[in-house]
Amino acid sequence: MKKNANHQESLTFRPLYKRLAEKVSAQILAENLKDGDFFCTLNDLCEKYIASITTVRKTVALLTAQDIISCKAGEGITIRDIESLRRMVSLRCRVLLLHHHYRKKLNDFFELRLSALVQGFSTNDIATQVIYREALNDESTLAFYWQSSTGIVCGNSMVGDVLAACQEYGMRQVLVINPPANVRLPPNFHPVFYDFAGLIEQSQRFWRTGNCRKIVMLRNEYNIIPPSYVDVIDLEEYPSVEVGRVYGERLWNESSDTGFWVTDDFVGLGLYDYFRGRGVDLNESKRLLVNSSPSRVLTDELGIAAIGFCPMRIGEEAAAHFSRILKEPDDEKKVHAPLIISAEASMSAFRHNELPDAST
Protein backbone atom coordinates (compact mmCIF):
# COMPACT_ATOMS: atom_id res chain seq x y z
CA MET A 1 0.00 0.00 0.00
CA LYS A 2 2.89 2.41 0.70
CA LYS A 3 4.27 1.85 -2.78
CA ASN A 4 0.84 2.54 -4.25
CA ALA A 5 0.54 5.75 -2.21
CA ASN A 6 3.94 7.00 -3.44
CA HIS A 7 2.99 6.18 -7.02
CA GLN A 8 -0.32 8.02 -6.59
CA GLU A 9 1.49 11.07 -5.22
CA SER A 10 3.88 11.16 -8.19
CA LEU A 11 0.93 10.96 -10.59
CA THR A 12 -0.88 13.89 -8.98
CA PHE A 13 2.10 16.31 -8.64
CA ARG A 14 1.85 19.33 -10.92
CA PRO A 15 4.03 22.46 -11.13
CA LEU A 16 2.59 25.65 -9.67
CA TYR A 17 2.02 27.32 -13.05
CA LYS A 18 -0.01 24.31 -14.26
CA ARG A 19 -2.15 24.40 -11.13
CA LEU A 20 -2.67 28.13 -11.71
CA ALA A 21 -3.66 27.37 -15.33
CA GLU A 22 -6.37 25.06 -13.96
CA LYS A 23 -7.70 27.86 -11.74
CA VAL A 24 -7.64 30.40 -14.55
CA SER A 25 -9.44 27.97 -16.85
CA ALA A 26 -12.13 27.46 -14.22
CA GLN A 27 -12.49 31.24 -13.85
CA ILE A 28 -12.92 31.71 -17.60
CA LEU A 29 -15.65 29.07 -17.75
CA ALA A 30 -17.36 30.43 -14.63
CA GLU A 31 -17.57 33.91 -16.19
CA ASN A 32 -19.23 32.49 -19.34
CA LEU A 33 -16.83 34.37 -21.61
CA LYS A 34 -17.01 34.10 -25.39
CA ASP A 35 -14.37 34.23 -28.13
CA GLY A 36 -12.98 37.74 -28.41
CA ASP A 37 -14.04 38.84 -24.90
CA PHE A 38 -11.54 40.67 -22.71
CA PHE A 39 -10.50 38.58 -19.70
CA CYS A 40 -7.96 40.49 -17.57
CA THR A 41 -4.34 41.65 -17.34
CA LEU A 42 -1.27 39.85 -16.03
CA ASN A 43 -1.28 42.07 -12.95
CA ASP A 44 -4.92 41.14 -12.30
CA LEU A 45 -3.92 37.46 -12.16
CA CYS A 46 -0.98 38.22 -9.88
CA GLU A 47 -3.25 40.03 -7.43
CA LYS A 48 -6.16 37.58 -7.58
CA TYR A 49 -4.09 34.44 -7.07
CA ILE A 50 -1.23 35.98 -5.07
CA ALA A 51 1.27 34.63 -7.60
CA SER A 52 4.57 35.97 -8.92
CA ILE A 53 4.74 37.55 -12.35
CA THR A 54 7.03 34.70 -13.45
CA THR A 55 4.43 32.06 -12.55
CA VAL A 56 1.65 34.06 -14.19
CA ARG A 57 3.64 34.47 -17.40
CA LYS A 58 4.26 30.70 -17.54
CA THR A 59 0.56 30.10 -16.99
CA VAL A 60 -0.45 32.53 -19.72
CA ALA A 61 2.15 31.05 -22.08
CA LEU A 62 0.70 27.57 -21.50
CA LEU A 63 -2.89 28.65 -22.17
CA THR A 64 -1.74 30.66 -25.20
CA ALA A 65 0.08 27.63 -26.63
CA GLN A 66 -3.17 25.69 -26.22
CA ASP A 67 -4.99 28.37 -28.28
CA ILE A 68 -7.35 29.15 -25.40
CA ILE A 69 -6.32 32.78 -24.86
CA SER A 70 -4.39 35.51 -26.61
CA CYS A 71 -2.14 37.97 -24.80
CA LYS A 72 -0.73 41.15 -26.32
CA ALA A 73 1.25 43.92 -24.67
CA GLY A 74 -0.98 46.86 -23.84
CA GLU A 75 -4.18 44.92 -24.60
CA GLY A 76 -4.26 42.32 -21.87
CA ILE A 77 -5.68 38.81 -22.18
CA THR A 78 -8.59 37.97 -24.47
CA ILE A 79 -10.43 34.72 -25.13
CA ARG A 80 -9.40 32.98 -28.32
CA ASP A 81 -11.19 29.57 -28.35
CA ILE A 82 -13.63 28.83 -25.53
CA GLU A 83 -14.72 25.53 -27.13
CA SER A 84 -11.14 24.23 -26.96
CA LEU A 85 -11.13 24.99 -23.26
CA ARG A 86 -14.41 23.15 -22.76
CA ARG A 87 -13.05 20.11 -24.58
CA MET A 88 -9.86 20.14 -22.51
CA VAL A 89 -11.84 20.32 -19.26
CA SER A 90 -14.02 17.47 -20.48
CA LEU A 91 -10.94 15.32 -21.08
CA ARG A 92 -9.53 16.20 -17.66
CA CYS A 93 -12.82 15.41 -15.92
CA ARG A 94 -13.82 11.82 -16.46
CA VAL A 95 -16.57 10.41 -14.27
CA LEU A 96 -17.16 6.72 -13.63
CA LEU A 97 -20.85 5.88 -13.26
CA LEU A 98 -20.91 2.70 -11.19
CA HIS A 99 -24.04 0.66 -11.94
CA HIS A 100 -25.06 -1.85 -9.27
CA HIS A 101 -27.12 -3.93 -11.72
CA TYR A 102 -25.89 -6.51 -14.19
CA ARG A 103 -26.54 -5.83 -17.88
CA LYS A 104 -29.02 -8.71 -18.05
CA LYS A 105 -30.96 -7.54 -14.95
CA LEU A 106 -31.54 -3.86 -15.56
CA ASN A 107 -34.15 -1.73 -13.81
CA ASP A 108 -35.91 0.93 -15.87
CA PHE A 109 -35.86 3.51 -13.04
CA PHE A 110 -32.08 3.26 -12.73
CA GLU A 111 -31.63 3.21 -16.51
CA LEU A 112 -33.60 6.45 -16.83
CA ARG A 113 -31.54 7.98 -14.02
CA LEU A 114 -28.34 6.79 -15.70
CA SER A 115 -29.40 8.28 -19.03
CA ALA A 116 -30.05 11.63 -17.37
CA LEU A 117 -26.69 11.50 -15.58
CA VAL A 118 -24.84 10.88 -18.84
CA GLN A 119 -26.72 13.70 -20.58
CA GLY A 120 -26.24 16.04 -17.63
CA PHE A 121 -22.49 15.51 -17.48
CA SER A 122 -22.25 15.90 -21.26
CA THR A 123 -24.07 19.24 -21.00
CA ASN A 124 -21.43 20.31 -18.48
CA ASP A 125 -18.57 19.16 -20.76
CA ILE A 126 -17.62 16.16 -18.63
CA ALA A 127 -16.92 12.73 -20.10
CA THR A 128 -18.47 9.63 -18.52
CA GLN A 129 -17.84 5.89 -18.45
CA VAL A 130 -20.58 3.50 -17.32
CA ILE A 131 -19.30 0.47 -15.39
CA TYR A 132 -21.83 -2.33 -14.87
CA ARG A 133 -21.73 -4.80 -12.00
CA GLU A 134 -19.93 -7.58 -13.92
CA ALA A 135 -17.00 -5.23 -14.66
CA LEU A 136 -16.85 -4.13 -11.03
CA ASN A 137 -16.15 -7.73 -10.03
CA ASP A 138 -12.97 -7.63 -12.13
CA GLU A 139 -10.30 -5.86 -10.03
CA SER A 140 -7.93 -5.22 -12.94
CA THR A 141 -10.70 -3.59 -15.00
CA LEU A 142 -11.79 -1.42 -12.09
CA ALA A 143 -8.20 -0.37 -11.36
CA PHE A 144 -7.69 0.63 -15.00
CA TYR A 145 -10.79 2.83 -15.15
CA TRP A 146 -10.18 4.23 -11.66
CA GLN A 147 -6.77 5.62 -12.57
CA SER A 148 -8.25 7.49 -15.54
CA SER A 149 -11.10 9.07 -13.53
CA THR A 150 -11.48 12.25 -11.50
CA GLY A 151 -14.93 11.49 -10.06
CA ILE A 152 -17.14 8.54 -9.15
CA VAL A 153 -20.94 8.28 -9.00
CA CYS A 154 -22.52 5.41 -7.09
CA GLY A 155 -25.73 4.39 -5.34
CA ASN A 156 -26.34 3.44 -1.73
CA SER A 157 -25.54 -0.27 -2.13
CA MET A 158 -22.00 0.45 -3.35
CA VAL A 159 -20.69 2.90 -0.73
CA GLY A 160 -18.63 0.27 1.08
CA ASP A 161 -17.05 -0.95 -2.17
CA VAL A 162 -16.18 2.60 -3.25
CA LEU A 163 -14.64 3.43 0.13
CA ALA A 164 -12.44 0.33 -0.21
CA ALA A 165 -11.51 1.24 -3.79
CA CYS A 166 -10.50 4.75 -2.70
CA GLN A 167 -8.11 3.19 -0.19
CA GLU A 168 -6.73 0.78 -2.78
CA TYR A 169 -6.52 2.86 -5.95
CA GLY A 170 -6.50 6.46 -4.72
CA MET A 171 -8.98 9.00 -3.39
CA ARG A 172 -11.49 10.54 -5.80
CA GLN A 173 -14.41 12.93 -5.52
CA VAL A 174 -17.47 10.71 -5.06
CA LEU A 175 -21.16 11.47 -5.52
CA VAL A 176 -23.39 9.09 -3.55
CA ILE A 177 -27.06 8.96 -4.50
CA ASN A 178 -29.36 8.13 -1.59
CA PRO A 179 -26.57 7.05 0.82
CA PRO A 180 -27.32 4.65 3.69
CA ALA A 181 -27.99 6.36 7.02
CA ASN A 182 -25.61 4.12 8.99
CA VAL A 183 -22.44 5.01 7.02
CA ARG A 184 -20.28 8.03 7.86
CA LEU A 185 -19.06 9.61 4.64
CA PRO A 186 -15.58 11.22 4.34
CA PRO A 187 -15.28 14.83 3.09
CA ASN A 188 -14.67 13.80 -0.54
CA PHE A 189 -18.02 11.94 -0.62
CA HIS A 190 -20.92 14.20 -1.63
CA PRO A 191 -24.41 12.90 -0.77
CA VAL A 192 -27.62 13.28 -2.75
CA PHE A 193 -30.60 12.71 -0.47
CA TYR A 194 -34.16 11.89 -1.42
CA ASP A 195 -36.62 13.95 0.60
CA PHE A 196 -38.57 11.05 2.09
CA ALA A 197 -40.11 13.31 4.73
CA GLY A 198 -41.58 15.47 1.95
CA LEU A 199 -42.79 12.37 0.12
CA ILE A 200 -44.62 11.16 3.21
CA GLU A 201 -46.17 14.59 3.77
CA GLN A 202 -47.44 14.75 0.18
CA SER A 203 -48.78 11.21 0.52
CA GLN A 204 -50.66 12.15 3.68
CA ARG A 205 -52.17 15.14 1.88
CA PHE A 206 -53.39 12.77 -0.83
CA TRP A 207 -55.15 10.60 1.75
CA ARG A 208 -56.71 13.64 3.40
CA THR A 209 -58.50 14.48 0.14
CA GLY A 210 -60.30 11.11 0.12
CA ASN A 211 -62.66 9.14 2.35
CA CYS A 212 -60.47 6.23 3.42
CA ARG A 213 -60.74 5.41 7.12
CA LYS A 214 -58.09 2.71 7.05
CA ILE A 215 -54.80 2.64 5.13
CA VAL A 216 -52.68 -0.42 4.42
CA MET A 217 -49.11 0.06 3.17
CA LEU A 218 -47.32 -2.55 1.05
CA ARG A 219 -43.70 -1.54 1.59
CA ASN A 220 -40.43 -2.53 -0.02
CA GLU A 221 -38.64 0.80 0.62
CA TYR A 222 -37.75 1.04 4.31
CA ASN A 223 -36.83 4.72 4.14
CA ILE A 224 -40.57 5.38 3.86
CA ILE A 225 -41.83 5.43 7.44
CA PRO A 226 -45.57 6.19 7.55
CA PRO A 227 -47.60 7.57 10.47
CA SER A 228 -48.56 5.12 13.21
CA TYR A 229 -52.18 4.85 12.01
CA VAL A 230 -51.04 3.11 8.80
CA ASP A 231 -50.95 -0.71 8.83
CA VAL A 232 -47.64 -1.76 7.24
CA ILE A 233 -47.00 -5.03 5.40
CA ASP A 234 -43.30 -5.38 4.53
CA LEU A 235 -42.80 -7.21 1.25
CA GLU A 236 -40.34 -10.08 1.40
CA GLU A 237 -40.79 -11.01 -2.26
CA TYR A 238 -39.03 -9.25 -5.14
CA PRO A 239 -41.52 -6.57 -6.27
CA SER A 240 -43.46 -7.44 -9.42
CA VAL A 241 -46.92 -7.18 -10.97
CA GLU A 242 -47.61 -10.78 -9.95
CA VAL A 243 -46.76 -9.99 -6.32
CA GLY A 244 -49.28 -7.14 -6.51
CA ARG A 245 -51.95 -9.52 -7.76
CA VAL A 246 -51.19 -11.96 -4.93
CA TYR A 247 -51.65 -9.22 -2.36
CA GLY A 248 -54.77 -8.07 -4.19
CA GLU A 249 -56.31 -11.47 -3.50
CA ARG A 250 -55.24 -11.32 0.16
CA LEU A 251 -56.66 -7.81 0.62
CA TRP A 252 -59.83 -8.24 -1.43
CA ASN A 253 -62.04 -8.61 1.64
CA GLU A 254 -60.91 -5.32 3.18
CA SER A 255 -63.72 -2.80 3.61
CA SER A 256 -64.54 -0.37 0.81
CA ASP A 257 -63.11 2.54 2.83
CA THR A 258 -59.62 0.96 2.99
CA GLY A 259 -56.87 2.68 1.02
CA PHE A 260 -53.73 0.99 -0.29
CA TRP A 261 -50.41 2.80 -0.08
CA VAL A 262 -47.83 0.93 -2.18
CA THR A 263 -44.12 1.79 -2.37
CA ASP A 264 -43.45 -0.01 -5.69
CA ASP A 265 -45.14 0.77 -9.00
CA PHE A 266 -45.19 -2.83 -10.29
CA VAL A 267 -46.80 -4.08 -7.11
CA GLY A 268 -49.28 -1.21 -7.34
CA LEU A 269 -50.12 -2.14 -10.93
CA GLY A 270 -50.73 -5.75 -9.91
CA LEU A 271 -53.00 -4.67 -7.06
CA TYR A 272 -54.90 -2.31 -9.36
CA ASP A 273 -55.26 -5.05 -11.99
CA TYR A 274 -56.63 -7.58 -9.50
CA PHE A 275 -59.34 -5.22 -8.19
CA ARG A 276 -60.13 -3.90 -11.66
CA GLY A 277 -60.65 -7.44 -12.94
CA ARG A 278 -63.35 -7.87 -10.31
CA GLY A 279 -65.16 -4.65 -11.11
CA VAL A 280 -63.56 -2.33 -8.55
CA ASP A 281 -61.67 0.75 -9.78
CA LEU A 282 -59.35 1.82 -6.96
CA ASN A 283 -58.58 5.09 -8.76
CA GLU A 284 -62.15 6.38 -8.89
CA SER A 285 -62.53 6.05 -5.14
CA LYS A 286 -59.00 7.36 -4.42
CA ARG A 287 -58.06 4.12 -2.69
CA LEU A 288 -54.68 3.59 -4.33
CA LEU A 289 -51.44 5.58 -4.05
CA VAL A 290 -48.10 4.43 -5.40
CA ASN A 291 -44.80 5.90 -4.27
CA SER A 292 -43.05 5.76 -7.60
CA SER A 293 -41.69 8.00 -10.30
CA PRO A 294 -44.44 10.48 -11.23
CA SER A 295 -43.27 10.29 -14.84
CA ARG A 296 -44.14 6.62 -15.36
CA VAL A 297 -46.14 6.36 -18.57
CA LEU A 298 -47.95 3.19 -17.50
CA THR A 299 -49.21 4.47 -14.15
CA ASP A 300 -50.11 7.83 -15.67
CA GLU A 301 -52.09 6.32 -18.56
CA LEU A 302 -54.07 4.14 -16.14
CA GLY A 303 -54.72 7.13 -13.89
CA ILE A 304 -52.92 5.63 -10.89
CA ALA A 305 -51.90 8.30 -8.38
CA ALA A 306 -48.11 8.40 -8.00
CA ILE A 307 -45.89 10.45 -5.71
CA GLY A 308 -42.17 9.86 -5.85
CA PHE A 309 -38.81 10.84 -7.26
CA CYS A 310 -38.39 11.41 -10.99
CA PRO A 311 -35.27 9.56 -12.22
CA MET A 312 -34.66 12.10 -14.98
CA ARG A 313 -34.70 14.98 -12.52
CA ILE A 314 -32.41 13.08 -10.13
CA GLY A 315 -29.86 12.49 -12.88
CA GLU A 316 -30.03 16.03 -14.23
CA GLU A 317 -29.68 17.77 -10.85
CA ALA A 318 -27.04 15.34 -9.54
CA ALA A 319 -24.89 15.78 -12.67
CA ALA A 320 -25.06 19.58 -12.48
CA HIS A 321 -24.23 19.54 -8.75
CA PHE A 322 -21.26 17.19 -9.13
CA SER A 323 -19.97 19.02 -12.22
CA ARG A 324 -19.62 22.21 -10.19
CA ILE A 325 -17.63 20.32 -7.55
CA LEU A 326 -15.33 18.63 -10.06
CA LYS A 327 -14.54 21.89 -11.85
CA GLU A 328 -13.26 23.52 -8.67
CA PRO A 329 -9.44 23.52 -8.53
CA ASP A 330 -8.17 20.70 -6.30
CA ASP A 331 -6.74 23.02 -3.66
CA GLU A 332 -9.97 25.05 -3.50
CA LYS A 333 -12.45 22.20 -2.94
CA LYS A 334 -15.16 23.30 -0.51
CA VAL A 335 -17.52 21.38 1.73
CA HIS A 336 -20.80 21.48 -0.15
CA ALA A 337 -24.28 21.19 1.30
CA PRO A 338 -25.97 17.91 0.33
CA LEU A 339 -28.22 17.97 -2.70
CA ILE A 340 -31.85 17.29 -1.74
CA ILE A 341 -34.22 15.82 -4.33
CA SER A 342 -37.88 16.71 -3.71
CA ALA A 343 -40.75 14.32 -4.30
CA GLU A 344 -43.17 15.07 -7.13
CA ALA A 345 -46.78 14.11 -7.75
CA SER A 346 -48.31 12.85 -10.99
CA MET A 347 -51.33 14.62 -12.46
CA SER A 348 -53.44 11.72 -11.25
CA ALA A 349 -52.35 12.22 -7.65
CA PHE A 350 -53.59 15.76 -7.19
CA ARG A 351 -55.92 18.26 -8.76
CA HIS A 352 -54.72 21.66 -7.59
CA ASN A 353 -58.22 22.83 -6.74
CA GLU A 354 -58.65 19.83 -4.44
CA LEU A 355 -55.51 20.41 -2.41
CA PRO A 356 -56.12 21.26 1.24
CA ASP A 357 -54.16 24.04 2.86
CA ALA A 358 -50.68 22.65 3.64
CA SER A 359 -50.90 24.01 7.18
CA THR A 360 -53.98 21.96 8.04
TrEMBL record:
<protein>
    <submittedName>
        <fullName>GntR family transcriptional regulator</fullName>
    </submittedName>
</protein>
<dbReference type="GO" id="GO:0003700">
    <property type="term" value="F:DNA-binding transcription factor activity"/>
</dbReference>
<feature type="domain" description="HTH gntR-type">
    <location>
        <begin position="14"/>
        <end position="82"/>
    </location>
</feature>
<dbReference type="InterPro" id="IPR000524">
    <property type="entry name" value="Tscrpt_reg_HTH_GntR"/>
</dbReference>
<dbReference type="GO" id="GO:0003677">
    <property type="term" value="F:DNA binding"/>
</dbReference>
<keyword id="KW-0238">DNA-binding</keyword>
<dbReference type="InterPro" id="IPR036390">
    <property type="entry name" value="WH_DNA-bd_sf"/>
</dbReference>
<dbReference type="InterPro" id="IPR036388">
    <property type="entry name" value="WH-like_DNA-bd_sf"/>
</dbReference>
<keyword id="KW-0804">Transcription</keyword>
<keyword id="KW-0805">Transcription regulation</keyword>
